[in-house]
Write a structure and sequence with these properties.
The complex is a heterodimer. Chain A is α/β, with parallel strands linked by helices. Chain A is 38% helix and 16% strand. In chain A, the strands form two sheets. Chain A has a five-stranded parallel β-sheet, with helices on both faces. The relative contact order of chain B is 0.14. Classes of the chains: A alpha/beta, B alpha+beta.
């Protein structure tokens, strides 16, 4: 263990420079993050991830945000275990009918001010699962969405771009 | 051969293994053979007016499909004799409205009462509202308390409900309630073009997207009797083994993280990321989604892909052995994983548990070896097994499989032939059926389909989790609540793959 720790200390960090916030996402966010919220939250956001019916591909890439290369916490962004601790709900998947109520209840449990980030093509409009008897639709068909991050699944760098856009808007 | 022992009407155009329509007595006899352990249940699935059962004779690696026509909307319950079939039967009832007669558990499984229809793939009746609340199995005794968990969990994971009943810290019963991520894949498959269907199959369980695409492609290629070019076969090996590596790295780290040993988690996370980046460099997608397609692969190895994989292998060989040593020599970690969540060998065998769950409990089935789909028959590798059946053994199976996958990747790169990467598919003139397997990181994925011209008439995908989830309920018994995350992560069952 000492060898691994020592080597980690003596080598350069793996963490990479952050990507610039995505312009299109900044535009989508315009006006959705008001000044009062900025004052309250500063430059820190707690994120609660909710899988509302995904294939789990998006979850894998969201997980990757915590690895040494992307190191999400350096931006003041962190994942929390309860919606009651969250500022941001990050929702994946088409919303299945079996998950709709759970998603609504999670949304209602999240204190204001709050934002919803819909991650992945399925979260945008149901993706390849649209039209099924078991699918309610995209996330916006169930709860209000502030930001869409597209991709199947989006790469961690795209997820970072979106979250940084949220942070930038929020910090003004 | 199994088929020779079955009295029934043999169906033409079902490849590569035979299918026969049987009567009720023969269906029951097959259920008895499953109960007796003579055969292993591979899957049980429905259609509008029939049920199918795929069975495996492990001794001779032979497979057959039995079909029972449900003329009056019922079929003799397999689960009444052979418990691994119970959840599959409940799912058949929810989706097709077919009733297993004599079933021990008549509760719904995937239908949680929100679809607005009942039996969506059978009669599709408007749902009768309101529905009686779901009844969990009774637990009786002194000083018991219940802990409901989910469907929304604390981590970045899929949704499902766990109902724990505990006496103090000790779990006396876990009952799972799944189905939350049911997306209706079976219904979306019906009438889909091959291209649409392949995309759906690839999104059945995202962590096994290559394996699902491969099992689906195998089924299509069997149905249409297509030979896949050799180069495509080897590129598929490269993809499948990269996927296995990435998942095993992720799992080993995550299991250790659930014992609060975050150093392993961080180090394994780096290896996982490097693996995904190598996959991206080779095939232009980190998870390699939609790269395996019926007939071959969608894209060739990118320039620089070979170099990226070579660099990955060198890095893994440099780092991974010390992580293994770290795992093996950290007493506080071993204290959590050894002797925790023990799965008895007879349960693993009876449920036909695949992947590390089965192999850590002495069941060595691996579709790459037992069914030797090409080109695995030409490659040298071992299927590691252990007998302890605990969390530790499931970690060790993953460690050993990482080593095997590294070797398989090397062999695939060394032998990679030149040539075409995709065979042309010609629609068959009459309906045809195919069955295929692929060994995903968590076990064998089964795909069965019937093609009608250029479209899929019916497709059934069976995730290895169907036979692993019920065993998780068993292994947690007598363990403390705090060890559940470790047990759960060591199984790492798919919710999406199971819920469909």
């Amino acid at each position: 263990m000492r060898r691994i720790l020592l080597e980690s200390m003596l080598s350069r960090p793996l963490t990479e420079a952050p990507p610039a916030a995505d312009e299109a996402m900044l535009a989508e966010l315009a006006g959705k993050v008001d000044a009062a919220a900025r004052r309250k939250l500063g430059r820190s956001l707690s994120i609660r991830e909710v899988d509302a019916g995904s294939c789990n591909g998006c979850e894998l890439e969201i997980h990757a945000l915590n690895n040494a290369f992307y190191d999400l916490e350096r931006f003041g962004l962190r994942f929390v275990a309860s919606p009651r601790h969250a500022d941001v709900l990050m929702v994946t998947g088409p919303v299945t009918k079996n998950m709709r109520e759970a998603l609504e209840r999670t949304y209602n449990s999240t204190p204001d001010p709050k934002w919803v980030v819909a991650v992945g093509d399925c979260a945008a409009n149901g993706g390849v699962f649209a039209g099924s008897y078991a699918v309610a639709g995209g996330v916006k068909d169930v709860i209000p969405v502030d930001l869409h991050i597209r991709g199947c699944p989006p790469r961690p760098s795209q997820l970072l771009q979106g979250l940084l856009a949220l942070l930038e808007k929020q910090a003004g | 051969m199994i088929i020779d022992t079955i009295a029934g009407e043999r169906i033409k155009g079902h490849r590569p293994w035979p299918r026969a329509i049987v009567r009720a007595d023969e269906w029951r006899r097959a259920s008895e053979a499953l109960k007796a352990g003579k055969w292993t249940l591979l899957s049980l699935w429905g259609e509008a007016r029939a049920v199918h059962m795929a069975v495996l004779d492990e001794a001779i690696s032979d497979i057959a499909v039995l079909t029972f026509e449900c003329l009056d909307g019922t079929f003799p319950s397999v689960g009444a004799l052979h418990p691994p079939a119970i959840r599959l039967e409940r799912a058949i009832h929810d989706l097709f409205g077919l009733t297993p007669t004599g079933a021990l558990d008549e509760r719904s499984w995937l239908d949680l009462g929100f679809w607005g229809v009942e039996a969506p793939l059978g009669g599709a009746r408007a749902a009768a509202a309101p529905r009686a609340p779901y009844v969990f199995l009774p637990v009786e005794g002194e000083n018991l308390h219940q802990i409901p968990v989910g469907p929304v969990h604390a981590g970045i994971i899929e949704p499902g409900h766990f109902r724990f009943t505990a006496n103090g810290e000790t779990v006396v019963r876990l009952e799972q309630r799944l189905g939350y991520v049911h997306k209706g894949i079976d219904s979306l498959m019906a009438g889909a073009t091959l291209e649409q269907a392949a995309r759906l199959a690839s999104r059945t369980s995202g962590d096994s997207t290559v394996a699902y695409a491969l099992a689906f492609a195998h089924a299509v290629e069997a149905a249409l009797d297509v030979t896949v070019p050799s180069r495509a076969r080897y590129l598929r090996v490269l993809m499948a083994e990269l996927e296995r590596l990435a998942n095993h790295f992720g799992d080993i780290g995550a299991i250790c993280n659930d014992a609060s040993f975050s150093l392993m988690h961080a180090q394994c996370g780096v290896l996982r990321e490097r693996t995904l980046r190598a996959a991206d460099a080779c095939f232009g997608h980190r998870l390699m989604m939609d790269r395996v397609v019926p007939g071959g692969v969608a894209c060739d190895l990118a320039a620089g892909g070979m170099a990226a994989v070579t660099a990955l292998l060198a890095e893994v060989r440099r780092i991974f052995p010390r992580l293994v040593e770290l795992y093996d020599n950290t007493a506080s970690l071993q204290d959590r994983t050894a002797q925790t969540g023990i799965l008895r060998a007879d349960y693993a065998r009876r449920f036909g548990a695949g992947g590390y769950v089965g192999r850590a409990s002495g069941r060595g089935f691996d579709a790459r070896k037992a069914l030797a789909y090409p080109p695995y028959g030409e490659l040298t590798f071992e299927v590691p097994t252990r007998n302890a059946g605990d969390v530790d053994a499931r970690v060790w199976i993953r460690i050993k499989e990482v080593e095997q996958s590294l070797s398989l990747i090397e062999q695939a790169m060394r032998r990679l032939p030149d040539g075409a990467i995709r065979a042309e598919l010609k629609p068959a003139s009459e309906p045809c059926e195919g069955m295929g397997f692929a060994e995903a990181f968590r076990g064998d994925v089964l795909a069965w389909l019937r093609l009608d011209g250029e479209r899929v008439a019916r497709c059934h995908l069976r995730d290895p989790s169907w036979f692993q989830w019920p065993l998780l309920e068993v292994v947690i018994e007598g363990n403390i609540v705090a060890d559940f995350p470790l047990c759960n992560k060591s199984f790492n069952c798919s919710y999406s793959g199971h819920d469909l």
